[in-house]
Amino acid sequence: MQRFIIAAALVAALAAGGAAHAADKLPAGTVITGQVSGVTATLLGLDHDFADEAGSHVTTLAAADLEFLSGDAAVGIDFFTNGEVQVWNNSGALSLPGQYQFTFSFAGLASPLASFQPLDVTGMTGGTLSLQVLSDNSIRLTLTDAQFATEFGQVSAQLNVSAVPESGTLLMMAAGLGLVAGLRRARRRA
Description:
Blueprint: H1 2-21, E1 31-38, E2 43-45, E3 58-60, E4 68-70, E5 75-79, E6 84-89, E7 95-107, E8 113-120, E9 124-135, E10 138-148, E11 154-161, H2 167-189
Antiparallel strand pairs: 1-3, 1-7, 2-4, 4-5, 5-6, 6-11, 7-10, 8-11, 9-10
Helix pairs in contact: 1-2
Organism: Roseateles asaccharophilus
InterPro entries: Ice-binding_C
Signal peptide: 1-22
């Protein structure tokens, strides 16, 4: 019985180690391609110093920096490695009239996107915020006639990925299960 408990503890520890490694839902350096439509059709990226030039709609996730500005500089989008997305009212006014529809795709994600949900919308006092997952690697975020509590207010949302075990975790779990089976077999023979 003691051997079984040790083997079960080993399997649990290995499984927990694999889960802890999956904390970065959007790893730093992830290439993000964005588009915007509505009030403006231009998206400016950090990698191009927010300049209105070809390719500015593509940037890499920088953990400590704002990644995108709308072409009119009224909306800022900031992605974090833990999957949080902050949307900033950068207009200097309490309202953003009209619609801003942003679409973002992420290259090279280890796991597919599973959900995109509001996290903190207390900074928005009116209008609508719509969030949706479009595919395994793309999302849409839409602000329509947004009203904010403060001139440079923000709202946040959470991107979640599907739990896909890493191959190393699966191999270790299989080894642990093999160990458990071997111990049971040896116990039966004794």
